[in-house]
Amino acid sequence: MVKSCTIALAVLSIYAVDFAINAVQSSCRSLIVDTLPISKQQLGSAWASRMVAIGHLIGYGIGTIDLLKIFGTTFGDSQFKQLTFIAATFFIFSVCVTSWAVEERVLLSSRDADVKSGAVKMISKILKTTLHLPDRIQAICWVQFWAWIGWFPFLFYSTTWVGEVYFRYHPETNASESKDTLGDVGRVGSLSLVVFSIITFTGSVLLPFVVQSPDHDRRPFTPRPHKNLGPLVSTLNKYKPDLQTAWQFSHLLFAGAMCLAPFVRSLKMATILVSLCGIPWALACWAPFAFMGIEINRLTTPNTMLANGSSYRRLSNHSVDEFNSPAPSPTFLRLNHLDRDVDDSPPADSSTGETAGIYLGILNLFTTLPQFVGTFISMIVFSILEPGKSPELHEDGSQEDVQKAADGPNAIAVCLFVGALSAVGAAYATTRMKATTR
């Protein structure tokens, strides 16, 4: 009974953490979209990708260290518990710093109905917006949906997969003799993900310089390099891929690497495949949000329409003083409500922080739903191929059981292979995205 409750609580905790991460990620991306102009959306998303890569590098680097030898049992009696404590602490600290440092635009409404609008009204607005997405945004969301069916098993199981490959296919290892088998698996897997993070960070830094920005045709100026470098720069610019092509290639690269997962029998090969996915991951953290930011900003008009049928205009500093606000803000937005029913307003005619949050929330929905699909697929695969415990990671597992498992298919590798097929679907969806008109 106690064991069943523990497992149920652990599963619920994973979904709670996943919910928190998705909520924070959507909010942070909304800040980028709402703050930067179209010309800097790619740069802002690239910097976000770099920060994510640095976080991965630090996290996986800590995972390779034996924390029990450093902290003892102060933060838990296992490697996993201590990693969880450290990650949660940094997560809370980062959210607090962002909340303290960022100053958002204040919306001043002349109608009390906006303040009293409830959750039902907001959910209805989100659903209506989801069903009437602009073509380009809808295309981006579908690419994200298929891509994340592939990314889910990789992000959840790659560490365990590398550890299983090490203990299952290397006879000299014996996981049953370890005092912390889960910790050893995590350390072996984290080492490969450190390389993955280094490649991700390198790609996040270099790729924006070799990939054309989606708005390169609309730049208000023409870059003029030094006359000695002019011919070289012009030649390189001719062969620069656009961001959509780079994103499509990243799906195919990820699919190619994960298609080989069922055939891996060595730690070295597993590490190489995981490391190769660093480049697609750099683009996965960058491309969809850059495209969304550009599309959302393109919806902006001089007199912007909010999703609830209201419009706003920017006030001067003198106008702000007239409100005698007790808490001055760098930017105030005055809501001017139109005399028409809210339900008659088109949901896609807005582009403020509110609208950025709605559209990025919908993108986040297309990122989260594949996780449920991936969980369902993984459940079926594990139930068929490995219904019990992995023998190489179980203290009662015999050498005969380990050899039997080594001769059969690896369930995690099969999940990664299924994810590769979905990545091919994402590449096809990217092709369809190219065909959509702006």
Characterization of this structure:
With 438 residues, the protein is mainly alpha-helical. It is built from 17 helices and 4 strands. The chain has helices at 2-35, 41-63, 67-71, 79-101, 113-116, 119-131, 135-169, 181-210, 230-238, 243-259, 267-276, 278-284, 287-298, 317-322, 353-385, 399-407, 411-435, and strands at 106-108, 304-305, 310-314, 332-337. A 4-stranded mixed β-sheet has the order 1-4-3-2, with no helix packed on it. The longest helix is centred in the middle third of the chain and has 35 residues, at 135-169. Residues 301-352 have low confidence and may be disordered.
Quick take:
It is built from 17 helices and 4 strands. It is mainly alpha-helical and 438 residues long.
Question: What class, by secondary structure content?
Answer: mainly alpha
Radius of gyration: 25 Å
Please give the share of residues in helix. Answer: 55-70%
Total number of strands: 4
List the secondary-structure elements in sequence, H or E: HHHHEHHHHHHHHHEEHEHHH
Give the mean pLDDT: 75
Compute the separation of the termini in Å. Answer: 57 Å
